[in-house]
């Protein structure tokens, strides 16, 4: 199943077109397994374990790490909101 999931994710083919002769099983079965594993938190746990193993082996370069705000919640929000800046040189023109 895992090889079938990785094959579909790598190639970008649709689940129903997973070739049966590769021996990965049905595309729909692979999709359901991916869904179930995702809901069970398997991928998040796998990611954490891999990071811990790589970090313990000094194989991570944390100076290249980027924190993405879409993945890290700001629990207390920002300090004060800065005014939004326009990308235009002047006020927006009227199009009506």
In short, what is this structure?
With 96 residues, the protein is mainly α. It has 3 helices and no strands. The protein has a domain of 59 residues.
Helix content: 25-40%
Shape: extended
The H-and-E topology, N to C, reads as HHH
Structure summary, number of beta strands: 0
Structural class: mainly alpha
Terminal CA distance reads 56 Å
Radius of gyration, Cα only, in angstroms? 22 Å
Query: What is the oligomeric state here?
Result: single chain
> Beta-strand level of the residues, as a percent range?
under 5%
- Average per-residue pLDDT, rounded, comes to 85
Total helices: the number is: 3
What does this structure look like?
The protein is mainly α and 96 residues long. It has a domain at 2-60. Helices cover 40% and strands 0% of the residues. The chain has three helices and no strands. The protein has helices spanning 2-11, 27-39, 42-56. Helix 1 packs across helix 2 (27-39). The longest helix is centred in the middle third of the chain and has 15 residues, at 42-56. 7% of the residues are buried. The mean pLDDT is 85.
Defining traits:
96 residues, mainly alpha, extended
List the SSEs and their pairings.
Elements: H1 2-11, H2 27-39, H3 42-56
Helix pairs in contact: 1-2
């Amino acid at each position: 199943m895992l090889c079938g999931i990785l094959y579909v994710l790598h190639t970008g083919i649709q689940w129903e077109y997973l070739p049966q002769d590769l021996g990965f099983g049905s595309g729909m079965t692979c999709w359901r397994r991916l869904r179930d594993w995702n809901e069970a938190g398997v991928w998040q746990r796998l990611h954490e374990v891999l990071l811990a193993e790589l970090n313990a082996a000094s194989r991570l370069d944390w100076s290249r790490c980027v924190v993405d705000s879409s993945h890290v919640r700001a629990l207390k929000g920002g300090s004060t909101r800065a005014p939004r800046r326009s990308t235009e040189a002047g006020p927006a023109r009227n199009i009506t």
